[in-house]
Write a structure and sequence with these properties.
Elements (H helix, E strand, L loop, with lengths): L1 H14 L4 E4 L2 E5 L2 H13 L2 H11 L3 E3 L10 H8 L6 E4 L6 H7 L7 E5 L7 H13 L5 E3 L7 H13 L5 E3 L6 H12 L7 E3 L7 H11 L7 E3 L7 H13 L5 E3 L7 H11 L7 E3 L7 H4 L8 E2 L2
Parallel strand pairs: 2-3, 3-4, 4-5, 5-6, 6-7, 7-8, 8-9, 9-10, 10-11, 11-12
Antiparallel strand pairs: 1-2
Helix pairs in contact: 1-2, 1-3, 2-4, 5-6, 6-7, 7-8, 8-9, 9-10, 10-11
Length: 308
C-alpha cells in the first residue's frame, strides 16, 4: 500500500503541469523522459496492483512519449502499465530507439491500441511483421505510423497483406522506408475496395513506374481514400498518365501528392486534362518535378494542379 501510494503521488507530480490537449475522443499528454524512468521502477516491482493503480491515475488515453530516449528494454515497462488501460489507447513513441525487440515487448498492450506511432525507431522487416500481426488481430486499431524506419519489400508486403484483411484501418503512414515496387504492388492489392482506409503515405519509398501504375490501377477500385502521399519517389510520365486515367474514374480522392518525382510537362498535361472530368479532386501537387516555370504557365487556369 505504501509503495502504491508513493508511485501514485510520483506519477501525479510528474503529470501535473505537462502539456495536454483534447483530440476528439482522446485526452493527450506529452510526458517527459523521466516518465520512462518511473515506468522502469514500477516494472521492477512486478506488482500488477501497482501497475493497475498507476494506469488508473493517468487520466489520459493518448500518451506521447516522443523524444523520451526510450530503448527496446523500456518497452516491457511501458507495456506493464499500459496493458491495464480499460479504454482505447493511443501510444506515440516517435523518435526513440524502440527497434524490433521493443515492438515485441509491447505486445501485451496491443489489444487496447487504437493509435500506434513509431516514426524513426530503427524498425526493420522483423518489427514490421509484429505490427502486421497487430493490424490483423486488433479490431480497435485505426492508425499506424511507421515512417523513417528500415522497412523493405518483405516488411511492406506483410503490412499490406494485414491492411487488406483489416476492416478498421483509417490511416497508414510509411514515409521514408524502402518498400520498392514489390511493396507498392502489395499495397495496391490492399487498396482495392478497402472499406475504411482514408489516408495513406507511401512517400520516399523507392517506388518507380511499375509500382506507380499498380497503385493507380488499384485506385480505380477504391472509393475511400481521400489523401494519397507519393512524394519523393521515382514516378515518371508513364506513371502520371496512369494516375490521369484513374482520376477520370475515381471521384472520391481529394488530394494527390506527387511532389519531387520525375514527372515532366507531358505527364502534367495528362493530369491537367484528366481534371476536366473530375470536380471532386481538390489538388494534385507536382512541386519539385522537372517542370520549368515557363512550362507551368500552360496550366495557370487549372488552379488544382500545383507545379510551384
Amino acid at each position: 500500500r505504501i509503495l502504491l501510494a508513493y508511485f501514485f503521488e510520483s506519477m501525479k507530480s510528474h503529470l501535473k503541469g505537462l502539456s495536454r490537449a483534447r483530440l476528439k475522443e482522446y485526452k493527450q499528454v506529452q510526458v517527459m523522459p523521466n516518465f520512462v524512468w518511473m515506468l522502469r521502477c514500477i516494472y521492477e516491482t512486478q506488482s500488477e496492483k501497482v501497475g493497475k493503480g498507476v494506469a488508473k491515475c493517468m487520466r489520459a488515453n493518448y500518451i506521447k512519449l516522443t523524444y523520451c530516449n526510450a530503448y527496446s528494454a523500456d518497452c516491457s515497462a511501458i507495456s506493464f502499465v499500459m496493458h491495464h488501460f480499460q479504454k482505447r489507447l493511443a501510444l506515440d513513441l516517435d523518435n526513440n530507439n524502440i527497434n524490433d525487440y521493443g515492438i515485441k515487448q509491447l505486445q501485451p498492450c496491443f489489444s487496447h491500441l487504437a493509435v500506434l506511432s513509431l516514426y524513426n525507431n530503427q524498425i526493420t522487416d522483423i518489427g514490421a511483421k509484429y505490427v502486421a500481426r497487430l493490424i490483423e488481430e486488433c479490431p480497435s486499431l485505426i492508425y499506424v505510423k511507421l515512417g523513417a524506419n528500415k522497412i523493405t519489400t518483405e516488411g511492406g508486403k506483410s503490412l499490406a497483406n494485414a491492411i487488406k484483411k483489416s476492416k478498421t484501418m483509417y490511416e497508414i503512414g510509411m514515409w521514408g522506408n524502402k518498400i520498392g515496387d514489390e511493396g507498392a504492388n502489395a499495397f495496391a492489392e490492399a487498396l482495392k475496395n478497402h472499406p475504411t482506409l482514408t489516408n495513406i503515405s507511401l512517400a520516399f519509398n523507392s517506388i518507380t513506374t511499375e509500382g506507380g501504375k499498380s497503385l493507380a490501377e488499384a485506385m480505380k477500385h477504391n472509393n475511400g481514400i481521400n489523401i494519397f502521399w507519393l512524394t519523393k519517389n521515382e514516378l515518371d510520365d508513364e506513371a502520371a498518365e496512369s494516375f490521369a486515367e484513374m482520376i477520370k474514374v475515381n471521384k472520391r480522392l481529394g488530394h494527390l501528392w506527387l511532389i519531387q518525382n520525375q514527372i515532366t510537362v507531358r505527364g502534367a498535361k495528362s493530369l491537367a486534362d484528366a481534371l476536366q472530368d473530375n470536380t471532386a479532386l481538390k489538388e494534385i501537387c507536382l512541386n519539385g518535378n522537372p517542370i520549368s516555370q515557363e512550362e507551368a504557365k500552360v496550366f495557370e487556369n487549372e488552379k488544382r494542379l500545383i507545379c510551384f
